């Protein structure tokens, strides 16, 4: 999918997220600990800031032009809450993580990213004027680079 330049950074993060999701979906008793450790590196490095950028910059920008209560948007926010909770819960797990839990998270993350790429981003690209998309890009960079 050709992304508007403004959403390129978020799409780059999505490629990393899809790679993590693929590994989570294939987790077994043998590699669950390593798969989880790699996922948590991604989550605490990039993932949580990516969620924050979407929640604090992207979706508020959309809500000025579209209806934030529409199902396509609400689904993104519910996914964020539940994926964030599961990442933190797994991060606090002592001992080997149950592989079926990692696989369930992988399915969830995979479906979430695909929904954003196929449904949410096209919706936003359609709704926002170019100047607003450019502001979104700067705001996303700011959140992801300062991590604050
Ligand atoms: Fe995303």
Describe the structure using short key phrases.
148 residues; mainly alpha; 5 helices; elongated; binds fe (ii) ion
What does this structure look like?
There is one protein chain. The protein is mainly alpha-helical. It is built from five helices and no strands. It has helices at residues 8-25, 32-63, 71-91, 99-127, 130-146. The protein is elongated. The two termini are 30 Å apart. The relative contact order is 0.20. Fe (ii) ion (FE2) binds at residues 10, 14, 50, 54, 116. Residues 10, 14, 50, 54, 116 line the site of fe (ii) ion.
Summarize the structure.
The chain is mostly helical and 148 residues long. It has helices at 8-25, 32-63, 71-91, 99-127, 130-146. Helix 2 (32-63) packs parallel to helix 4.
Helix content: over 70%
User: Ends: how far apart?
Assistant: 30 Å
SS-derived structural category: mainly alpha
The oligomeric state is single chain
Percentage of residues in DSSP E strands: under 5%
Topology pattern, helix = H, strand = E: HHHHH
- Rg (CA only): 16 Å
């Amino acid at each position: 999918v050709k992304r508007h330049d403004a959403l390129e950074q978020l799409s780059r993060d999505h490629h990393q997220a899809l790679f993590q999701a693929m590994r989570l979906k294939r987790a077994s008793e043998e590699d669950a600990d390593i798969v989880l450790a790699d996922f948590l590196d991604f989550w605490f490095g990039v993932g949580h800031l990516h969620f924050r950028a979407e929640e604090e910059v992207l979706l508020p920008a959309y809500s000025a032009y579209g209806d934030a209560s529409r199902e396509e948007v609400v689904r993104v926010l519910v996914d964020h809450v539940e994926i964030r909770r599961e990442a933190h819960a797994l991060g606090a797990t002592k001992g080997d993580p149950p592989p079926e839990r990692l696989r369930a998270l992988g399915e969830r993350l995979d479906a979430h990213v695909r929904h954003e790429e196929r449904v949410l981003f096209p919706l936003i690209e359609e709704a926002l004027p170019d100047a607003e998309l450019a502001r979104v890009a700067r705001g996303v960079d700011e959140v992801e680079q300062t991590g604050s």
